[in-house]
Design a protein that fits this description.
This protein has 10 helices and 11 strands. Helix 1 crosses helix 8 and helix 4 crosses helix 5. The longest helix is centred in the N-terminal third of the chain and has 17 residues. The radius of gyration is 19 Å and the shape is globular.
Amino acid sequence: MQVPMSPVRILNRAVKLYPEKTAVVDGDLRLSYAEVQKRVNQVVHAVADLEITPGGRVAVLDFNTHRYMELYFGMAASGRVLAPLNTRLSAEEYTYILNDAGAEAIVFHADFLPILEQIHSHIDSIRYFYIADGPAEADWITGTYADWIDAAADTPAGGEPADENATLNLYYTSGTTGNPKGVMLTHRNIYANALTTIISFKLGDATVWHHIAPLFHLADAFFIWSVTYQRERLARFKVPKTIQMLSELPKTGSGKILKTELRRQFSGQ
């Protein structure tokens, strides 16, 4: 029997084997794999309620938060395409990318509200704007991400794609000449790379992966899938706090102290 290679299978496997194991650490938030699955189900229902057709694009402009895990797996199960956006671009670049991608909805962190204020009326395709970690006060904002997802059902929804070669994620290049270029990755691409990442980094089921690199980039996004495949724990890495911690370390014996402090931070102890 041939089955599609898709990240949907990765989360299903983790939930089946270790439903109560901690999957996500994001500040004070802790989610088990079973709880992540419920959140993913809600994303699938929420996107379907917007009547975004399969293959439609949903953009995300966010920092490294639990929302990335929900959206990466949620879009996979829903048959839609996620377009993660670089957090370091200009208003003009965001306008171009969102129009070129044909995004129908966007989830954005409140820190990017000033930029979205500038460009929302210049993006023809987006019908829904959801703000995260902030109030939906402007009349053009559809609502908050939390309210949108929390209002959706958490019953099982979506599933594996009929075609593993269907586009799953749409990433845009930056820092080159000309306009950014969209790079399409399929369900099969993502699944295969998750397996090679496990082998290359020797990931095991006791690993805690700290997201230092941005999740809008594949330099770290692949660990969303590979770490989940191995039933490990994903931790949000708080860069400012860690930089302060490093600057305060004593000059002698700092290696041992650093290892102990990092273990304390990311174990939640």
